[in-house]
């Protein structure tokens, strides 16, 4: 069964596209591992502190993560 992305995941990806920002670049800016950031952005892993850090950097709400 296919997993649906949460609104937070979608919003994060949309903002990254708007900024022409790759996952590798985002991870480097936040001093995080690229595969870990990718897992969070794709809803495979959930970490409240990491979601907050990414949300703050991208300027998006971190409150829409209930279905990550």
UniProtKB/TrEMBL annotation:
| Residue span, HTH cro/C1-type domain | 24-68
Q: What CDD domains is this protein classified in?
A: HTH_XRE
Output the InterPro entries linked to this UniProt entry. Cro/C1-type_HTH, Lambda_DNA-bd_dom_sf
UniProt GO MF annotations? DNA binding
Domain of life of the organism encoding this protein: Bacteria
Q: Supply the name of the protein.
A: HTH cro/C1-type domain-containing protein
Q: Which organism is it from?
A: Mediterraneibacter butyricigenes
């Amino acid at each position: 069964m296919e997993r649906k992305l949460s609104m937070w995941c979608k919003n994060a990806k949309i903002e990254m596209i708007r900024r022409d920002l790759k996952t590798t670049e985002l991870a480097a800016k936040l001093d995080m591992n690229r595969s870990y950031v990718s897992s969070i952005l794709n809803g495979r892993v959930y970490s409240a502190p990491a979601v907050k850090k990414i949300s703050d950097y991208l300027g998006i709400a971190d409150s829409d993560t209930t279905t990550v």
